[in-house]
Specification:
alpha/beta; Dimethylsulfoxide Reductase, domain 2; Barwin-like endoglucanases; 3 domains; 32 helices; binds ligand MGD; binds molybdenum atom
C-alpha cells in the first residue's frame, strides 16, 4: 500500500528537483530596503537569531507577550515545538488553519466522545462507507485505494458532494446537495434512522447521552423540509439513510466539505452522532475510537500548554467568542478526555480577528509575527486584510523554503531544511487510528553547502536567547525526536537500520467504550457545548452569505462559490515553482457548468473573472457538467513564483488567488469554533474580454 502511494506521487518522484531548485532559500536574509522593495542582505544565523530575539524581547516588554504571534499552517512542520516556544514565551496567539483543517473534527469528536482525530477507512469487514465532503482521489491517495478495494468487494458507497468527483462516480448514491447544507441533510438522515426504527437501541441505551432530546431536534427536519433546503430528492435522502443504517459495519469519511462550511461544528456533530446511534463505534469494520495509543511521547507533552498563566490564556484573541477550539474548550475537553492526545493544532487564536488586531490595535495590538510553514497571503481568507495587517507590523519574520509572497514583505527570511534534509518521525498512528502505518522514521538524506536549518533550530535558538534554556535540552531535532521515542525503545537510527524506517505501534488495543466526556457517554446532546454556552444539539442555519439569506446580494452575485477542492500535484500554495509539477498543471482552473458558461458567452479554457463583494481574480474556465448551474468551483493556492517578487507584484498574489474573494469576519464564522466559510460564498463570473480580444 505504501509503495503504491509513493509510486503514484509525483512530489516524491520529483523530490530531487525540489531539493536542487535554484529558487530555494539558502541563507538568512535581512531586509535592507523598504518592506516589500525586494532588497536583501545575507546574514549569518547567529546574527538573525540575536536580532530577532532582541526585537521580540523589546516588544514583549512594551506591549506584553501577547503582542507576539505566529501563523501556522497544516501538518508539515513539528508544530509542538512552535507551541512550546510560544507557551513558554507567554503568548496564546498562535493562529492558522486549525480552525478549518482537522480542528473542527478533532474538537467535536473530543467534546462528544473524549477521543480525537478519528478517521475511518473501510476495512475488509466494512459494508458501507458514507463519504461527506471529501475527495481522497485527489487528497488522500492511500484512503482512495482503500475505497477502490472496498468497492471491488461490493461495499455500498454513499457520496455527499456538490461536485461529481471520482468517488461520486463510483457511488451507489450520490447526493449533489446545495453547498453549505450538510447539517440539514444529516439531521434529516438522523430523523429517518430514528423514526423508521433503524437505530441500535441497545447501544443507544447503554452508551449514548441525550437520545430523546436529539430525536426531538431531528423531528424538526422532516425530509420534505430537508429536500427544500438541500435541493435533493426526498427519496434519495431516505435511501441514503437506510443504506448507511442497514449495512453494518459502516464507516464515515468526512472532511473539508463540512469543515469549510459556516455551519461546520453542527454538521460534524451529526457526523459523529450517526455512528453512535447505529452502534458503529468500535466494532470490527466500523469506526474506531482510539483507546490505547502508541507509547511514543505525545505532542501534548511537548507543547506545555499548562505553562501559560491563566491570565495570558484569557487574552487569546477570539477565545471569548469562539470557545471550542481555543483555550476554554480545549482545557475543558482535555480535562475529560480519555485519550489526552488531541493533536495540538486545535487550540488556537482566531486568525481573522488576529489580522484585525494588527490593523486596528483591538482588543490589543499585535506587533510581531513569525510565519512558519504557512503562507497566509495565499491560504488565509481575505487576502487584502491579511496584506494590510502584515504590512502594519513592527517585526515580520518568515521561515520557508522559498521567497513566498509573505516572505517578500518580511523583515527577516529564514531558510528551512525540508524533509530530505532533516530527521523525520511520522506518527500517522496519532491521527488516524485505522490507517495501516505506525511510526515512520527518516534520517537526513542530504547535506549541502547552504545553511538551511530545521524549524526546531529556530524555536530552540530563540528559546535559548529568551530565558527558556532549561526547556530546550535537546541540541537538535534528532535528539528531540529521540526523546519522544524513548519509552518505545528504539532511536530514530535504530528504526532505520533495524526496522527499515518503519515500526508498528507497540500497542493496538481497541474495544473499550468508555467515553471521555462529562457524562461518561457518547454525547448526542453535548454537555460540553452547553457548558461553553452553545446549543448542545446540532441545528441547521443558513450561511451569512447565501442566496437564501441574502437574496438582494444574489441579484448581483448569483453564483454559489466553492473553493479549494484538492487538485494534484499541488499541496495548497506549494510546488508551483517545480517545473515538472507545474507542467502537469500550469494554470488555475475554475469549474463551471457548461450550460451556464455558454449563456455567459464563455468558452472552455477562456480566462474568466470571478468576483465577490471583496474582490476579483481570474482563472481559466473548465466546463464541467458535474456541478449545478449556479455553483462555481475555483481552485485555491495560486501564486506565480515566476513573476517578480517586489511590490506591487508579490509573485502575482492578486492574480488568481481565490482568497482575495473569501471572508473570515467574525459574523461569517461558525459561532462555536469560529471556522470561516471557504465553500459557501457568492460570486459572479464573466469573461476577461481584453484577453479575448488580444487572442483574435
Ligand atoms: N480558499 C481556500 N483557502 C484554503 C483552503 C481551501 O480549500 N480554500 N484550504 C485551507 C486548508 S484546509 C489548509 S490546511 C490551508 C493550508 O494553508 P498553509 O499551511 O498556509 O498552506 P501552504 O500553502 O501549503 O503553505 C505552507 C508554506 O510553508 C512552506 N513549508 C512547507 N513545509 C515546511 C516546513 O516544514 N517548514 C517551514 N518552515 N516551511 C514549510 C511551504 O513552502 C509553503 O510556503 O489552506 C486553507 N486555505
Ligand atoms: N493534492 C492535495 N492533497 C491534499 C491537500 C492539497 O492541498 N493537495 N491538502 C490536504 C489538506 S490540508 C486537507 S484539509 C485535505 C482535504 O481533503 P478533502 O476534504 O478530501 O478534499 P477537498 O477536495 O478539499 O474537499 C472535498 C470535497 O468537498 C466538496 N464540497 C464543497 N462544498 C461542499 C459542501 O458544502 N458540502 C459537501 N458535502 N461537500 C462540499 C468539494 O466539491 C470537494 O470535492 O486534503 C489534504 N490533501
Ligand atoms: Mo487542511
Amino acid at each position: 500500500m505504501i509503495r503504491r502511494t509513493v509510486a503514484s506521487c509525483s512530489k516524491a518522484r520529483n523530490a530531487a528537483e525540489f531539493y536542487h531548485h535554484p529558487g530555494r532559500l539558502n541563507y538568512p536574509l535581512k531586509r535592507v530596503g523598504e518592506r516589500g522593495e525586494g532588497k536583501w542582505q545575507e546574514i549569518a544565523w547567529e546574527q538573525a537569531l540575536d536580532e530577532i530575539a532582541g526585537r521580540l524581547k523589546e516588544i514583549k516588554e512594551k506591549y506584553g507577550a501577547e503582542a507576539v504571534g505566529t501563523s501556522s499552517g497544516t501538518g508539515r512542520t513539528f508544530d509542538e515545538y512552535r507551541i512550546r516556544f510560544f507557551n513558554l514565551f507567554g503568548s496564546p496567539n498562535n493562529w492558522g488553519q486549525g480552525h478549518i483543517c482537522y480542528g473542527p473534527s478533532n474538537m467535536t469528536a473530543l467534546a462528544t466522545t473524549g477521543y480525537s482525530g478519528m478517521g475511518s477507512s473501510p476495512t475488509p469487514d466494512t459494508k458501507c462507507c458514507l463519504m461527506i465532503g471529501n475527495n481522497p482521489e485527489q487528497s488522500w491517495r492511500r484512503t482512495w485505494f482503500h475505497i477502490l478495494d472496498f468497492k471491488k468487494r461490493g461495499g455500498k458507497l454513499v457520496v455527499v458532494d456538490p461536485r461529481r468527483t471520482r468517488p461520486a462516480e463510483f457511488a451507489d448514491i450520490w447526493l449533489q446537495l446545495r453547498p453549505g447544507t450538510d447539517a440539514a441533510l444529516l439531521l434529516g438522515m438522523i430523523n429517518t434512522i430514528i423514526s423508521e426504527g433503524l437505530y441500535d437501541k441497545e447501544f443507544v441505551e447503554k452508551y449514548c447521552y441525550g437520545f430523546d432530546k436529539l430525536a426531538e431536534r431531528a423531528r424538526e427536519y422532516p425530509l420534505d423540509k430537508v429536500a427544500g433546503i438541500t435541493r435533493l430528492p426526498e427519496e434519495d435522502i431516505r435511501q441514503a439513510a437506510i443504506m448507511y443504517a442497514a449495512n453494518k459495519p459502516a464507516v464515515i469519511l468526512a472532511m473539508e466539505g463540512l469543515e469549510h462550511s459556516p455551519n461546520c461544528i453542527e454538521a460534524i456533530h451529526c457526523r459523529y452522532i450517526l455512528p453512535a446511534i447505529t452502534g458503529n463505534f468500535n466494532i470490527k469494520g466500523g469506526e474506531k475510537l482510539r483507546a490505547v495509543k502508541s507509547k511514543l511521547r505525545t505532542e501534548y507533552e511537548i507543547s506545555l500548554h499548562d505553562m501559560v498563566p491563566s491570565e495570558q490564556k484569557a487574552k487569546q484573541i477570539g477565545s471569548d467568542r469562539f470557545k471550542l477550539e481555543a483555550f476554554p474548550g480545549y482545557d475543558l475537553c482535555m480535562n475529560y478526555s480519555k485519550a489526552k492526545v488531541a493533536r495540538d493544532h486545535v487550540c488556537f487564536a482566531h486568525a481573522g480577528m488576529c489580522y484585525e488586531a494588527m490593523i486596528t490595535g483591538q482588543p490589543y495590538p499585535i506587533k510581531a509575527v513569525i510565519t512558519l510553514s504557512s503562507n497566509p497571503l495565499v491560504t488565509q481568507a481575505n487576502t487584502k486584510k491579511v496584506y494590510k495587517a502584515l504590512k502594519n507590523l513592527d517585526l515580520y519574520v518568515v521561515m520557508d523554503y522559498w521567497m513566498t509572497p509573505c516572505a517578500e514583505i518580511a523583515d527577516y527570511v529564514l531558510p528551512g531544511a525540508n524533509w530530505l534534509e532533516r530527521e523525520d518521525l511520522f506518527n500517522v498512528w496519532d491521527a488516524f487510528p485505522n490507517i495501516d502505518v505506525g511510526e515512520v522514521a527518516m534520517p537526513p538524506r542530504v547535506a549541502g553547502k547552504h545553511d538551511r536549518r530545521t524549524d526546531y533550530d529556530l524555536w530552540r535558538g530563540l528559546g535559548l536567547r529568551l530565558g527558556q534554556e532549561e526547556y530546550w535540552p535537546w541540541q537538535n531535532l534528532g535528539e528531540a525526536l529521540n526523546w519522544r521515542l524513548e519509552p518505545l525503545g528504539p532511536t530514530i537510527s535504530d528504526i532505520i537500520t533495524k526496522y527499515g524506517s518503519y515500526i508498528k505501534p507497540s500497542q493496538e488495543e481497541y474495544g473499550g467504550l468508555e467515553f471521555g466526556t462529562p457524562t461518561g457517554k457518547c454525547e448526542l446532546y453535548s454537555t460540553v457545548f452547553e457548558k461553553l454556552g452553545y446549543d448542545p444539539l446540532p441545528r441547521f442555519y443558513e450561511a451569512a452569505e447565501s442566496p437564501v439569506s441574502n437574496p438582494e446580494l444574489a441579484k448581483e452575485y448569483p453564483f454559489i462559490l466553492i473553493t479549494g477542492g484538492r487538485h494534484l500535484p499541488f499541496f495548497h500554495s506549494e510546488h508551483r515553482q517545480v517545473d515538472s509539477l507545474r507542467l502537469e498543471h500550469p494554470d488555475p482552473v475554475v469549474q463551471v457548468n457548461p450550460g451556464t458558461a455558454a449563456e455567459l458567452g464563455i468558452e472552455n479554457d477562456d480566462w474568466i473573472w470571478i468576483e465577490s463583494p471583496r474582490g476579483r481574480v481570474r482563472q481559466k474556465c473548465r466546463y464541467f457538467d458535474g456541478i449545478a448551474p449556479d455553483v462555481v468551483h475555483a481552485q485555491h493556492g495560486w501564486w506565480f513564483p515566476e513573476l517578480p517578487g517586489e511590490e506591487p507584484w508579490l509573485h502575482g498574489v492578486w492574480e488568481s488567488n481565490i482568497n482575495v474573494l473569501t471572508c473570515d469576519d467574525a459574523d461569517y464564522c461558525n459561532p462555536i469554533n469560529g471556522g470561516w466559510p471557504l465553500r459557501t460564498l457568492m460570486c459572479k463570473i464573466y469573461k476577461c474580454h481584453v484577453y479575448e480580444e488580444s487572442k483574435k
